[in-house]
Amino acid sequence: MDDLRTSLERIRGQFDREARAAGSSQELENLRVRYLGKKGELTSVLRLMGQLPAEERPAAGQAANETREAIEAALAERVAVVAAQERTLRLSEEKIDITLPGIRRPMGARHPLSKAADEICDVFLGLGYSIAEGPEVELDHYNFEMLNTPAGHPARDTQDTFYISDSVLLRTQTSPVQVRVMESTRPPIRIVCPGRVYRSDTIDATHSAVFHQIEGLAVDKGITMGDLVGSLQLYARRLFGEETKIRLRPHHFPFTEPSAEVDVSCWVCGGKGCRTCKGEGWVEMLGAGMVHPKVLVGCGIDPEVYSGFAFGIGVERTAMARFGIEDLRAMYENDVRFLSQFK
Ligand code: PHE
């Protein structure tokens, strides 16, 4: 019996020391298992009770229970203290110092060229057109031959470009996409093709060796020049305001007949003449015409049955007009002070 009491006291003392030393909930949980668990110290002491004479057992049982309760109580107290400490620590670690300045993420803006291109495409998407794309590294065959501009044709002079080989070049216009689409699709066709084009041009305020066009093409039965004028009128009104008028001047493109250059009435002075339109009242915006029968035949489309119109809009020109940009080089220099104005 005395042995048992000594063991219980030893266990109690040892537990108190270890409990005081335990600094985390996990350590306390380990202690609980070691002292109170099924294979714990207390349980193994209680097993000794079987060896005691019957009359000593009640007192021994009581002593063991008291020790167990004391350990449980001490443990509960320690668990509460340690849990509180842990919580305080966690909260202080999670604390945000709201007196620190935040991290500012500079907000980007869409590039004026992308904005202008989207605005133009949106007008035609609204008319049921879809977007088509073609390669920038193009075959002479598509960029010139199929567009009724054979080798030696004088129209090639105005579109000198960068050659990869005799038959491969950087496209000078988005018109080759017309041909690619007409070869692979049957009418009715209604497409707009936005993209980058290249010309061997000297760079100045209104010229660049790399610029952007949006080609438009509609081919169906009974398409007339009236449809072309109506569609371009709508484009001009949407981009430059409801009062805007368009004007067609006779022109020549090898792949359209008749062909026209299309002017838009000046959105600044309304046609009276000002600095923007250089006193003209009109600003040149695009080239257009009825698809040449030779081009249709080349693509396997019967010009006796089908007709179509095409146009090519300069995106730089449109962006300069829409956003009042005076030098197109500003659009390629990536100066944030310029670009951030288009938010
Ligand atoms: N591709 C012509 C150019 O770059 C523009 C154009 C397109 C003209 C479609 C007529 C029809 O000058």
Q: State the distance separating the first and last CA atoms.
A: 89 Å
CATH topology of the largest domain: the name is BirA Bifunctional Protein, domain 2
What are the low-pLDDT stretches, counting only 5+ consecutive residues below 50?
Answer: none
- Major pleated sheet: 7 strands, mixed
Tell me about this structure.
With 343 residues, this protein is of the alpha+beta class. Helices cover 41% and strands 19% of the residues. The protein has a 7-stranded mixed sheet with strand order 1-4-5-9-8-7-6, with helices on both faces. A two-stranded antiparallel ribbon has the order 2-3. Helix 1 runs antiparallel to helix 3. The structure holds phenylalanine. The site of phenylalanine (PHE) has 11 residues, from strand 8 and strand 9.
Layout of secondary structure:
Layout (H helix, E strand, L loop, with lengths): L1 H20 L3 H12 L4 H7 L9 H38 L17 H14 L4 E2 L5 E3 H4 L24 E3 L4 H10 L4 E10 L11 E11 L4 H16 L5 E8 L2 E10 L16 E10 L1 H6 L8 E8 H9 L12 H4 L4
Parallel strand pairs: 1-4
Antiparallel strand pairs: 2-3, 4-5, 5-9, 6-7, 7-8, 8-9
The chain binds phenylalanine.
